[in-house]
Amino acid sequence: MNGSTKDKLAWTAAKLFQERGYDGVGLSDILKSARVPKGSLYHHFRQGKSDLALAAAQFASREMLRIIDDAFLPAKTYKDGMTTLFFKCAKLFDLMGKWNGCPVSGILLNGAYNPMFRETSEHIFDSWIERVTAHATRLGLSENDAKERATHLFVVLQGGWDLARARQNSDELRRLPKLLSEGL
Amino acid sequence: MNGSTKDKLAWTAAKLFQERGYDGVGLSDILKSARVPKGSLYHHFRQGKSDLALAAAQFASREMLRIIDDAFLPAKTYKDGMTTLFFKCAKLFDLMGKWNGCPVSGILLNGAYNPMFRETSEHIFDSWIERVTAHATRLGLSENDAKERATHLFVVLQGGWDLARARQNSDELRRLPKLLSEGL
Amino acid sequence: MNGSTKDKLAWTAAKLFQERGYDGVGLSDILKSARVPKGSLYHHFRQGKSDLALAAAQFASREMLRIIDDAFLPAKTYKDGMTTLFFKCAKLFDLMGKWNGCPVSGILLNGAYNPMFRETSEHIFDSWIERVTAHATRLGLSENDAKERATHLFVVLQGGWDLARARQNSDELRRLPKLLSEGL
Amino acid sequence: MNGSTKDKLAWTAAKLFQERGYDGVGLSDILKSARVPKGSLYHHFRQGKSDLALAAAQFASREMLRIIDDAFLPAKTYKDGMTTLFFKCAKLFDLMGKWNGCPVSGILLNGAYNPMFRETSEHIFDSWIERVTAHATRLGLSENDAKERATHLFVVLQGGWDLARARQNSDELRRLPKLLSEGL
DNA sequence: AATGAATGAGTCTTCATTCAT
DNA sequence: CATGAATGAAGACTCATTCAT
Q: At residue C47, what are phi and psi to the nearest 5 degrees?
């Protein structure tokens, strides 16, 4: 089936790009890892590697949106949802191998001086912030407050992930909700 | 002069790695940009690209430590120093080209599954956090508080830089001190 | 056609390795001589030069087995076959250029501290000795005698070729059958 | 002392060339193994690698002549001397590492399409054969017989060494005297 | 006499992509 | 749709040699 092959490629690419970055992964690595023959790629992604990278980033983004929802939907307060999100990410960090960074950064920012990559990363990051904003509003925060907190959450999650990666220790991520909710 | 060639290579490499990541930059790019002939590199960096990357990261780290000092030394309070630091980074972001990310992440985390890279990035990040901690202590914070705030500063700066990069807008960085000092 | 390109590479490589040894021949020499573009090689020989060398050695070995058969099949006695073989080799030496050595030695023994190379050369040499042994048996020698003579033939041919190469004179090879059949 | 450094280089080069051939050994390998600084080489061997190779071959040749003398001087008959020589070579083979081939072939024949190399190898091989011839004459053989046997000895030793190398087993060398003295 | 920095052509290999089937 | 062969530019790295000190 077509969709299956295409999805498998995007999913595999996302996983590998996350570990080693856009330029650190060769098409042959992806093909081998996905067990897809060489010639197939260009049927599904006509522009080749860049198309695949965009698809992989969208794939990872959908995953992230799902995680955000899973964290916030059952939450009674913003603080609860936010905390759960960090713990979920920490768990993900441990499961996925401690070399992994933010998939979108790894795919779209690191690697390739490509305007479309940058724009897409901006849209994706905004969609994450908007999703958190929506949950925050739903949980009672004012629109301005919600947006500010969502942005901050994004920033801290992103930076915390880097530190966790450098230290190979997801505890960094688990410590951040406390700081976020109490301020400095 | 020897030091000159070696330093020029490290400096050039740092600049390019910051823009396009470790794997995104070829040795030939660095050599061309530094106007150094091909064979010279391996005199100064016997292990080649990886050695050069470590030197480049150390180079960038010293620069960062200098910026931290420049921000905190004249400051009367921790809040002042922290705010200045973010503004300095925002200015740097504008000057250096908006494609630039954290040099150490770009060099040592993105790119190459290399244990020594990871360890070095950890040490470098720790040295930044320690330097900020020292300034915070000097400015009157308790040791525990100082360390916590320094870590948070690092995390927010790192994440903020990513967002700024995605948005191609350094204002993100300038907005963060307010959030940091007031809490959420 | 696939087989054509692959065979052309193996054949060309065998020829060049024979003249200048494994390490003395660059891939670019082979590619240029075979008029095959650079990227093609790794389709046919995924491990690159070492794979190509193994294929070239096997190629040369098949050629040698054919020469052995050509010499012994029409022979009435072992001595006749052996003598014909040395004369055929002398002729080959003259035809192929007097710089040529034993292809298998030049490819697999000289060059590269590679266990698989050594093992392959052993198997190949054994296959030559076995083939001569079979002919000798067929021509009436006892099994033990046949094997001993075949080994000696191999040794003398190998050493004689070296001397011929040093002297640039195939007569050395033509003198050896007399010595071999009469003893010392 | 000058001679010491020069000899050390020649000796080290001979050892390495014997294992991996002229083209298989880099100048840096030799320099590192001999613990001689890079710039020194061209004082002692003005033409660089080729000069060094010639010196290394002469060095190895003198060693071989010494071994021939050691084998034949105490011998009562040609057969005794010849047998001792093969056993000495077998022992040498075991001591030096089973990857080693004939030093002169490895240096001067394999490697470099160089007329002077070829000529030198011819002279060296001739000098070995002449030395054996002299011993044979001294031990009572006629001049013609002596020369023929010496040549045959050379050929069988050379070929036997190759087989021993392929099989990683010096017994091949120890079996040859019997074949040589009894004929086939 | 001795040295280590400098050099650029050379090494083998992998890259992303196109093409004919 | 699917495929594996073909492609040559680019990848990192090593080479033997020269030169100023």
A: -90, 10
